[in-house]
Amino acid sequence: MTAMNPRRIKITREDTSLIIFRALKKGEFSGVEIANKLGISRTSIWKAIEKIRGAGYNITSKKGRGYKLIGHSEFPVYEIAELCFSNGVEEFYFFDEIDSTNSFLKRLLSDRQVVAVALALKQTAGRGRLGRRWLSDLGGLYVSISHRVRTNLSDVPKITICSGVAVCKAIRNFGCNATLKWPNDILLNGKKLSGILCELCGESDDLWVVIGVGVNVKNRVPEYATNLSDYHVTLGEVCIGILSSLFNYLSMLPKKWEDIRREWLELAKPMMGKKVEVKSAGNTYTGIFEGIDESGALLLNTGEKKIRVYSGDCFYGG
Question: Is the pLDDT of residue 13 over 60?
Answer without folding.
Answer: yes
